[in-house]
Design a protein that fits this description.
Blueprint: E1 32-33, H1 43-53, H2 73-85, H3 87-90, H4 96-109, H5 118-126, H6 131-134, E2 135-138, E3 142-145, H7 154-161, H8 169-182, E4 197-198, H9 204-210
Antiparallel strand pairs: 1-4, 2-3
The structure holds zinc ion.
Zinc ion binds next to loops.
Length: about 220
Amino acid sequence: MGRILRRVPLDFDWPQRRTWHGFITPAALREQPCPGCERGYTPEAERLFDRWYGRAPFDPASNGSTPLTAATPAVRDAAERHIAAAPDYYGADDAAVDREAERLARLWNRQWRYHLTQTDVDALVDAGRLVEFTHTWTPQHGWRPKQPLVMPTATAVNAWSLHGFGHDSLNAAAVIKAHCARADLAFLCATCQGHGTIEQYAGQRAATAAWEPAAPPAGDG
Ligand SMILES: [Zn+2]
C-alpha cells in the first residue's frame, strides 16, 4: 500500500477530488454481481466468517479455549491503553480499567479469531500466514524459515492476536477454508467459483486482466 505523487503539465486541467479517468476500470469490463452469493463464499462458509468476527454465536469452550476475563494480562493491557488514550471517553476513575477490561473480555470471547485451536493454527502455518512465528527477517535475506523449524502453539498465537493488528482477512479465509475441507463443506460459491461476480460475456475476465490503467500526462507541475 502507498501513494504515488506525479508531476503533471502546468496547464493540466482536471477537477479536484475526481479520480483520473485512466485509473477507472471501463464500464464494459465490470462484471455482474453473482446471484448465488455476496462475496464468493457458500452460505456455510459465510456462517463461519460470522463466528470468526462475532456476528453469530460462538463459545470459546467449543474450541477448547479458556474464556478471557478482565484479569487476563493481554485484556488488561489493552484496557489500560484504551483508558490512557481517551480518559475523557472512558473515565479516569479507579474502576475505569476494570470496566473496559470486562467489556473487552465479553467482546473477544464472542469471536472465534481470538480462540483458535491448534488445528486452526496448523492451517495458518500451512498457508504461510504466520511468518512472524515461523520465520526470521533480515535486511539481506528477507523472511527465512527458522532452523530448527518452529510450530507455534495455539496459546501463543491467541495471545499474539490480542495485541496490535492480529489476524487479517486472509488469515480468516485460510482457517475457514481448512475447516470447510475437514467438515466436507463447500467453501467457494459454485456459481462464481469464489469471484463474487460473473462475466457479462465470454472473455470479459481475460479482458479485465489485460486492461492497464493510463497515467495522466507528465510535466513540470
Ligand atoms: Zn457466487
